[in-house]
Amino acid sequence: MLKTSAYAAAAAGKPLAPYSFEQREPGPHDVLIDILYCGVCHSDIHQARDEWGGSIYPMVPGHEIIGRVRQVGQHVKKLKVGDMAGVGCMVDACRDCSSCRQDLEQFCLKGVAYTYNSTELDRKTPTHGGYASQIVVAEHFALKVPAGLDPASAAPLLCAGITTYSPLRQWNCKKGDRVGVVGLGGLGHMAVKFAVSMGAEVTVLSTSRAKEADARRLGAQAFEVTRDEATFKRLAGRLDLIIDTISAQHDYNQYLSLLRPQGAMVLVGVPPEPAPVAAFSLIGGNKRLAGSSIGGIAETQEMLDYCAKHQIVSDIEIIPIQKINEAYERMLKGDVRYRFVIDLASLSGANAR
Ligand code: NAP
Ligand code: ZN
Ligand code: ZN
Fold first, then answer.
1. Same domain flag for 81 and 192
2. Does residue 130 share a domain with residue 61?
3. Which residue, 9, 39, 86, 254, could crosslink 143 as a Cys pair with Cβ 3.0–4.6 Å?
4. What is the pLDDT confidence band of residue 350, given thresholds at 50, 70 and 90?
């Protein structure tokens, strides 16, 4: 077994604190990655605080992982020792069901092994995420990080990146489309970058007036403050596609009113509480309300390669692991431009090898 140093939440109300755990030695199809950087996703906060229910403790969060391959099993083909590798939200799935065969491992019919707050496919061994010194993962679920991407700024691509790239692709975002991005946080700022790179005219809808200059720097053509009711009247029926990244409860009906007939709004943000949608918000205009969950492994690799080609990475603030609780509080205040990334060197040489 491999002794691994980490930070974990011991219970829902507890701050994250130093923790160590044992994980398996790499098997013939596994890779062992020394984690260099891990992005801090709002899903880490939702789960560490049990806002979605069913959290498993102690919990080592983190699913935006980048590191260097230290060891590979004898049958591993995709990666070799010394390669830069990524791990996102999943570490295993059956690879045989109809979802897995369609490269939609996130919908594995037998149940996905998520990177943390989950169990391995034995349904017993808890999985632990990237706020840690190292991770062992099945080769299939490790991504190749293309040369030319800065590893710290690329870490958030493993969740924030794929979660916004995938719905833009699913809804065929293209040149000239009018795309609204709701919420300018970690996911939102990636949605802006991707939509702009696909040729869309992007409008950012935000509660924070102070983010206007950033929105325009990221390539948005328009910026609207959603605290102002007049915004919803002015923009009514204007947008082809909306990507909603808001992490807290809000009125979906208001945003649906911004779509043109047959336009689509895709939810990627996961507020803990449900919110009502009026039938008339959809029926008037044949509007579509959809959701999107991360992306499969093949699409995640496609997204990383796309990012290398288009020079797209996340705007980040690097923190030592000791600042993680402070970072959570700052995220809840919207005080991050636009993703915290933990430098795991701050865990020090505590990694017992
Ligand atoms: P984040 O960086 O904290 O950004 C969330 C943004 O939402 C904030 O920056 C803020 O934008 C806006 N917001 C927050 N509270 C709000 C409120 N009460 N009313 C209106 N707007 C509010 O979070 P993130 O990491 O991007 O994650 C966003 C959500 O996506 C989370 O719920 C997360 O769990 C979810 N998620 C889903 C998937 C998936 O597969 N579907 C994957 C990853 C994350 P402004 O300041 O611009 O208003
Ligand atoms: Zn995430
Ligand atoms: Zn499956």
1. no
2. yes
3. 86
4. very low
The reply to whether 216 and 278 lie within a common domain is yes
State in Å: Cα 310 to ligand 2 middle: 22
Strand partners, 4: 21
pTM of the model: 0.97
**Sequence-ordered list of residues with C-beta below 8 angstroms from that of 271, at least 6 positions apart, any chain:** 246, 247, 248, 249, 250
Counted residue by residue, the chain has a size of 353
Token look-up 């369609």 returns 102
Query: From the CA of 108, which ligand is nearest?
Result: 3
Task: List, chain by chain if needed, residues with CB within 6 Å of any ligand 1 atom.
Answer: 41-43, 46, 159-160, 163, 183-188, 206-208, 211, 245-248, 250, 268-270, 292-294, 331, 334
One DSSP character per residue, 145-191 reads --TTS-HHHHGGGGTHHHHHHHHHHHTT--TT-EEEEE--SHHHHHH
Which residue has the CA at smallest separation from atom 11 of ligand 1?
A: 183
Residues 81 and 211 in one domain: no
Please report the pLDDT score of residue 349 as a whole number: 52
Per-residue confidence band for 348, with pLDDT thresholds at 50, 70 and 90: confident
* pLDDT for 97: 98
Q: How far apart, in whole angstroms, are the C-alpha atoms of residue 347 and residue 353?
A: 14
Q: Which atom of ligand 1 is nearest to the CA of 42?
A: 25
Instruction: Tell me how many domains the chain contains.
Output: 2
- Rounded to whole angstroms, how far apart are CA atoms 161 and 148? 16
Q: Which atom of ligand 1 is nearest to the CA of 45?
A: 34
Domain that holds residue 263: 161-291
Phi, psi dihedrals of residue 261, rounded to the nearest 5°: -50, 135
Per-residue pLDDT tens over the stretch 245-270: 999 999 999 999 999 999 999 999 99
CB–CB of 187/157 below 8 Å? Answer: no
Q: What is the residue with the minimal CA distance to atom 16 of ligand 1?
A: 248
Ligand 1 atom 30 nearest Cα? 269
In a domain, 94, yes or no: yes
Q: Is residue 326 part of a domain?
A: yes
Compute the average pLDDT of residues 274-286: 97
> Rounded mean pLDDT of the chain?
97
